[in-house]
Amino acid sequence: MAFESLTEKLQNVFKNLRSKGRLTEADVKTALREVKMALLEADVNFKVVKQFIKSVQERAVGQDVMNGLNPGQMVIKIVNEEMVNLMGSETTEIPSKQGKEITIWMMAGLQGAGKTTTAAKLAGKMKSKGKKPLLVACDVYRPAAITQLQVNGEKQGVEVFSMGDKNHPVDIAKAAVEHAKNNQQNLVIIDTAGRLHIDEDMMRELEEIKAQVDVDATILVVDAMTGQDAVNVASAFAEKVGIDGVILTKMDGDTRGGAALSIKAVSGKPIYFVGMGEKLSDLEQFYPDRMASRILG
Ligand code: GDP
């Protein structure tokens, strides 16, 4: 299960804190050192951990906490609040156009991150909210990706726009938007090509689609199981292509938690949704407070 080891370690630290009636500054320091170790072992970015501990420490050794009725509980509360802050405080919605205009979302990500699956999951979710989505197959380098999108789109009852693998992705995206206009669809979700590693061609293609089609949100799909790599990928895409937010997949696996806790702080971009399994219904909105509660156990 995700976060298992992190949760267990944090719970031990908190148990010690709770068992003490009064806390000295040294008690708090010891506890925070243990929290720090636990976060580092969970693969949370080093700078993020440092800043996090500093914020908690500043608040926790304040007079109010140390002289309060239940200082242990107060420290735990502060850790919880700072963890929520770290993940962006509030739930962020993916940017959309209002009214009758067509919203365009572009999915990006490395191969295997779960981009194609997530595009179909997202389309289904938005359909259930009353949108009329159109999925667009722009991964022309991997014919299997087109088929995969078609199969998943069908399962979701969402039309998939494809022009095979002989056309340029920009032309496909433009034609798809025209198609959506003519068919009263109001949400276009473009599935793009992924590569095994970040490379210039992939970035250029994403930039080109973005420049030629009026994309409202570029959504990066990253695999939570890859820990700090996921965070590095998010930073690289944020810098090179410009992304609006992230969907973190495979949170149902035994990820240590580093990606969920670091992505916002490192890349500056919010997490919109988390993938919780292979089924097309396994997509959940990301709530920083609920995630913090889950991590803290
Ligand atoms: P793409 O190359 O980025 O388009 O990745 P795919 O959509 O083909 O997904 C790669 C693999 O990851 C597939 O086997 C998916 O079923 C799986 N996958 C995607 N999202 C999740 C998730 O949230 N949880 C789990 N367990 N598997 C996922």
TrEMBL record:
It catalyses: GTP + H2O = GDP + phosphate + H(+). It is found in: Cytoplasm. Its EC number is 3.6.5.4. GO terms for biological process: SRP-dependent cotranslational protein targeting to membrane. Residues 270-283 form the SRP54-type proteins GTP-binding domain. GO terms for molecular function: 7S RNA binding; GTP binding; GTPase activity. GTP binds at residues 109-116, 191-195, 249-252. Coiled coil: none annotated. It is an enzyme of class 3 (hydrolase). Keywords: Cytoplasm, GTP-binding, Hydrolase, Nucleotide-binding, Ribonucleoprotein, RNA-binding, Signal recognition particle. One of its GO terms (cellular component) is signal recognition particle. Involved in targeting and insertion of nascent membrane proteins into the cytoplasmic membrane. Binds to the hydrophobic signal sequence of the ribosome-nascent chain (RNC) as it emerges from the ribosomes. The SRP-RNC complex is then targeted to the cytoplasmic membrane where it interacts with the SRP receptor FtsY. Part of the signal recognition particle protein translocation system, which is composed of SRP and FtsY. Composed of three domains: the N-terminal N domain, which is responsible for interactions with the ribosome, the central G domain, which binds GTP, and the C-terminal M domain, which binds the RNA and the signal sequence of the RNC. Belongs to the GTP-binding SRP family. SRP54 subfamily. This is Signal recognition particle protein. It comes from Blautia hydrogenotrophica (strain DSM 10507 / JCM 14656 / S5a33) (Ruminococcus hydrogenotrophicus). The gene is ffh. The chain holds residues 1 to 297 of 449 of the full protein.
